[in-house]
Specification:
Largest sheet: none
Radius of gyration: 24 Å
Structural class: mainly alpha
Shape: elongated
Order of helices and strands: HHH
Number of strands: 0
Distance between the termini: 66 Å
Low-confidence stretches: 1-5
Strand content: under 5%
Number of helices: 3
Helix content: 55-70%
Length: 126
């Protein structure tokens, strides 16, 4: 990962942020604990790169040209989609775990007693 602070060009910061986002998308296609950790680090890098763009533009007191503005908006949209995806996945997994715990505890998701299930008669001879 290259550091955004090495560059004074917002276009270079955007290029690096896009490269990080491409890598995140590749990693998300191969779910694993390592991929999740790498994706988190890369998303932090995207945040740094976008901060670099903002800092350089503030430092130069300049308005971004159309290509920089479009690039930032594109990355913001991609990050928002990923944030929504992660939030939905977290919500789904939390609800699923609650449902599993409830059923194992003999209750439905609504807190009522779960219906009894018949178990075949077992005979143990020894």
């Amino acid at each position: 990962m290259e550091s955004a602070t090495e560059y004074g060009d917002p276009k270079e910061c955007l290029r690096l942020a896009r490269a990080s986002m491409r890598e995140v998308k590749k990693l998300l296609q191969q779910p694993s604990a390592e991929a999740a950790d790498q994706s988190a680090a890369l998303l932090r890098d995207v945040e740094v790169q976008l901060g670099c763009v903002a800092a350089v533009l503030r430092k130069n007191n300049s308005r971004p040209d159309a290509s920089i503005r479009a690039g930032v908006e594109e990355l913001q949209n991609e990050v928002a989609v990923l944030a929504g995806f992660f939030s939905g996945a977290d919500r789904m997994l939390t609800q699923w775990l609650e449902a599993v715990r409830s059923r194992r505890g003999g209750y439905t998701e609504r807190g009522q007693a779960a219906p009894l299930t018949l178990v075949r008669k077992l005979s143990v001879e020894g």
